[in-house]
Model the fold of this input.
Amino acid sequence: MSIVISYAAYPAIGLALTVWVAGMLRRNGRLLLADAFRGDAKLGEAAKRLLLIGFYLVNLGYLTLSMSASASPENAQMTIEKVKDKVGGALVVLGITHFVVLFAFHQLRKRGRERSGHARAGFAGGGWSPENAPLGKVLE
Done:
């Protein structure tokens, strides 16, 4: 019976944590991507979705692969320890993938700013920047 509890608890906890972190990335990455794509909301939204799909695939894949148990826990303490170990591993993978996605956001933003700087050099007043963007466009 303990193995059933651990098989139910681990994916539920892991999935909840994955969805929570992805939601944070979704909400907070919006401004970085708006800046990276010079206000092109559709392109920023597409990039965000692609990054989040990869985030979900890596984390849910890890959760699925790590569900197997070598031995059935014999008591409640062993069940809790097994779930703790599995959730700890999932948190490490979540943290790593979170920073990989943040790095991707940063690289996209950096590249967008470099392109914006080159575009402005060719003509006066051109290019998009978050400072001169209408508030509605940034929040889209």
Q: What stands out?
A: The chain has one domain: 2-139. The radius of gyration is 21 Å.
